[in-house]
Write a structure and sequence with these properties.
With about 140 residues, the protein is mainly alpha-helical. It has 6 helices and no strands.
């Protein structure tokens, strides 16, 4: 359980750090390479922590899992997270893959809007749902 708690703490810390550096306006995000790169890196790490936490919960609960990447679905099927959150997490994972692997051209506006309008709220929702389950 210690590793799970450590991962949750790490996720919370990365989320705080991301929120402290997110520019208020898209123009600043677009023009400031360092902020944009930092936001993208935090996005990647945050989603990686969500995947890791999901997998650890599946293991802790002895839920059948053959692929770490299916852990969101398994959590939803076992009513640990909601269907709505499952969709949001899968979308975040897809965006993370685009950023991390540079699939095609990265649309900075989409990344900025995802970070400012979705990611922070979705990850807070994830934290609430999993903490409710494990406590």
């Amino acid at each position: 359980m210690t590793r799970l708690n450590d991962e949750i703490i790490n996720l919370e810390n990365y989320l705080k750090e991301l929120t402290s550096i997110i520019p208020n306006h898209y123009s600043e995000y677009q023009e400031n390479f360092e902020k944009r790169a930092a936001c993208e890196r935090y996005f990647e790490k945050i989603v990686e922590f969500v995947v890791s936490i999901s997998y650890l919960i599946c293991r802790k609960e002895s839920l059948e899992i053959d692929d770490k990447l299916k852990s969101f679905t398994i959590l939803q099927e076992n009513k640990i997270i909601s269907k709505d959150l499952l969709v949001k997490l899968k979308d975040a994972k897809g965006m993370r893959n685009i950023i991390a692997h540079k699939y095609g051209e990265i649309d900075n506006l989409i990344v900025f809007e995802t970070i400012t309008k979705e990611l922070v709220m979705d990850i807070n929702e994830f934290l609430i749902e999993i903490k409710s389950f494990i406590e």
